[in-house]
Amino acid sequence: MAIHRNCEGLRRRDCLSLGLGALLGGGFVSALQSRAGAGEPGADKRPTGCILVWLDGGPSHIEMFDPKPQAPAEIRGEFQPIETKVPGVFFSENMQRLAAINDKFTIVRSVCHNQNNHGAGNHYMMTGAPTRIPVSCGAFVSFHPSMGSVVSAERGAPHNLPPYFAIPSITRSGGPNFLGNRHAPFVVADDPNSKGFRVRDVTLPTELDDGRAISRRLARKKLDQLQRYQDRATGDPVVGSDENFQQAVSLMTSDVALKAFEIDRESDAVRERYGRNALGQRLLLARRLVEAGVPFVTINDGGWDHHSNIFPAFKKQGATLESTVATLIEDLDERGMLDTTLVLVMGEFGRTPQISTLPGSTTPGRDHWSSAMSVLVAGCGTPRGQVVGATDTRGYAAIEKIYAPENLVSSVYLKLGINPDKIVYNSSGRPSHLVSDSRPIQELM
Amino acid sequence: MHSRPIGLLLLSLACTVLAGPLFAAEPAASSPGVTPSVTFELDVQPLLTRYGCNSGPCHGKSRGQNGFALSLLGFDSEFDYLALVGEGRGRRQFNATAEGSLLLRKATGEVPHGGGKRIEVGSPHYELLQEWMRQGSPRTPETAPKLVRVVCEPATQVLTPNASFQLRVFAEYSDGSRRNVTDVTAFQSSDRAYAAPSNETAGLVQAGPIPGEAALMARYMNNIAVCRVLIPQPGDLTDADYDQLPRRNPVDDLVWQKLKLLKLLPSAETSEAAFLRRAYLRIIGRQPTPEETRAYLADASTGKRDALVDRLLERPEYADYWANKWADLLRPNPYRAGMKAVWNLDAWLRQAFRKNQPYDQFVRELVTAQGSSWRHGQAVVFRDRPDTVEIASSVSQLFLGVRLECAKCHHHPFEVWSQDDFFGFAAFFTRIGHKGEGLSPPISGGQEMIFSTPAGQLAHGRTGAIVDPKPLAADSLKIPAEQDPREVLAGWMTSPDNPYFAKVMASRMWAELMGTGLVEPVDDLRATNPASNEPLLDYLAQDFRENGYNIKHLIRRIMTSQVAALSSKPTERNLSDTRNFSRYYRQRLRAEVLLDAVNDCLDTEEEFPAMPAGSRATQVWTFRSASLFLDTFGRPDANQDPPCERTSDSTTPQILHLMNSPSLNRKLALDTARPAQLAASALSNEQVVEEAYLWVYCRPPTADEKQAALELLPAPPDRRKGVEDLFWVLLNTPEFLFVD
Fold first, then answer.
1. Report field, pTM of the whole predicted structure over 0.90
2. Touching check for B66 and chain A: CB below 8 Å?
């Protein structure tokens, strides 16, 4: 574990946290042990990774994985259910390709919570903790570290790769909170489908050739004459920044890392298969990153808040999504990576069974509904071809094997080798569990 | 590692001798007066705290653990007694066969226990619990003497490295009796590297190998006492070593006094150029220009350092720099409060610093704000935090340095604050009226009026009783309906007798100027988190108060001290000192300052959304004005809670961004940027190197540096790429990234 004695404040805080551990927690030794454990992937097999496909806005469960053919038309909607590869399981007709491979993944139909707006729903699903105070729809809030930041802190990544990527943007509550800026996601905003795509900052800007970059670095070595106070006891933050510089250079010169970013190394066939669109290439980039050892990648896909126009949207947007996700799962499986790669597809909640046309809108849609939603979980030891839980005949509420976001997030942590019951300390030293209810969704484990 | 000097040995011997007989006479656990039997509050509850049973991660959390819930750290005896004796179908304690009770079987690990084995069968504490149940699990009678306070003896201990000492903790009761409770006290060290308990039950404390200091917190029930442990650096120093140190103002003497205690000596004075850059960056958040640097270095007058500080305090950048810092603390989330409201608050903040509004008036205006969220910026704080509990927590933290929030749900774990204190304080904010368009995220575009109303009350979170406003550590008040309770609160906060108000601002400003706080976090002042130099913090607070809460005066006081002009370079006599200001502590430039500095060096401009052309980063009024640079370097996102967390650690993505970001490289290569200007100028290569050093490092290059830099530059007119490379190099080194 790298000990950064960067700024005095941080260091004292760290100590304070440890001290509090001794008093409030299971004792100093256990606090120390859990810290020392950070960054070790655990077993000696291929390290696990996670690709979270976040459908921002809250995708409709009825139009995806939980159709309600018996319900009246104002609930059932325009689409028919279709048979899937697993006998007796039906998806909505929009999920054609996923229906053909659902022997590879699990759908959980019974995750639910009580946070019915985007701000709070995002926070709950993204961090496994409800917001501490009520927040509203527009809120982008963070009261607890997101899954990606926790994985960054607990696992790290090889080749000095950033351990947590957010593509193309950070999700509302996807930040590190008290884990600090080091565990914020590395955002790749540019479109990997565009020509000449490069991952920003880790590769040289296009105008700069390798030779000039190298000579700049050599000159830097010569001219960098600020005195370092090497003795650790001095707590010189410049020494810490030198370590960052070394990491940056080794990342820039690491073949494995750089290759991960070069999406054009993929054959045209593979790129076509994922779809020559931003979402397709972003998922492909995510797969490459996980392949290189990045433990957590979030794809933030917007536009799932279908208060109106829901049926045409699912025909188009739904089709693109499901075919891309199906490709990802197949591709991972073919590469033997599905056993170590967790794929999650979810949003902040499901949508109202009752179709509505809001004032000012001309087309029907569905509104926010956190009492029911469907979550797709694949890989990393998740049983294949399974449906967990159920909602009632009209899709209003989870009625079987009801699980909370805490259980889902705990499952994710366990699959990634992280103890969800671990005690963490916020910046004022207050202890809390990583997830307040550390029981996983048993059926996923 | 260090030889043990005779003097110190004698000193610590003397302490031991003094301490020994005094306490030896005390019986180990004499009961305080009336009740001879083992009772709940007096004997049993302390054990639940001592063994961590009622701690936050265990049964103390709000829903308990496996169905057994205790109040956090035992603040609610009633609740705990019921939990132990009344609930669990009576299995938790048996009066007939105590050994069969779940309390003992779980605690000794006889039956599976999530918390593991906590006590040994047959140990004194085991027998105490057994005896309690045998006697019928009695509660401590109401009439029994009450616990008044807990004291540590000694309260201060001077130690040599690796030495240990005996700490005793006494509980004092209302009848004047006291008892030794060391064996049922839980200890916590503020810094285990310096001193930590080696045997908790015996109260033995062991010093680490490095000189320094630590505060040991002793907790007995809800009461806390602190013992300060000092481990001076070995070696002989005389008074003369300290008498000869320069004293430019009272700050210096107070710092030297502390150094003397720890036998530390300050580093040398820093160079003139380094002080100049430090003063610019710390006071106005920008670097001096080459012209300013040359003029300062050429100035031979004796008072030039003080004159520089005075000059900087009058610069227009001052207001933007400090308002930008305060915006970290106050700026609401525009998604929540609305863009116009956020802009309005930002404008109010900038105006306050532009006119150097006295701090007490600044806070009074905020705390008692009324008016329109579109017109009166300060009122936006109440629009953003309409919840009584929320606004009370932030006011107490920001302006009093008291973290009351814990006490909303339970007694504060490291402080005297109870739920009564929390709700009493929150009750000041119950008579606030809201009219107009309230929060309607994600736009919240409407206008809202904040005003004082006669009605409004607050119910206590636990008891449900209506609570009267109550200042901290004072009695409840009856405030007439026609008076705004916030006026009363502001009066109490800003009164000269208020022990917290000036202190927390002094603490904040010291940390901003010196790179490290006297206390960390700067707004968490409490006995259990003592400042590294309490007399200094007290002096600064008093000086601030006596000078009309003039913020510029406070800055001047700190920045004109000798301490603020010390070099960061450690000496043998202060190598491991990271909190007593024996030298200056380096710190990375904050995001906005760094970005402005890059643009100043390159003579380029940043384009910020929603800002006029030519705006500086310190003028940006919302994080929604997108900037990858600012976000990478840790500009806080107003979505975060708490919003003020800004860390100055450096990260790999930051280094990568400076090296490779397309936008920075584009700026370097602009035809209008400084590298191109210099390359095209009539200046010789030597002069170009000098200019580059003055712009980026704010000092002329040394001869060696000049030589090395010249190698980058071909002869004009083909030198442009070379000049760009030189600027790239300098901007990518720590000498630019850090204030030194």
1. no
2. no
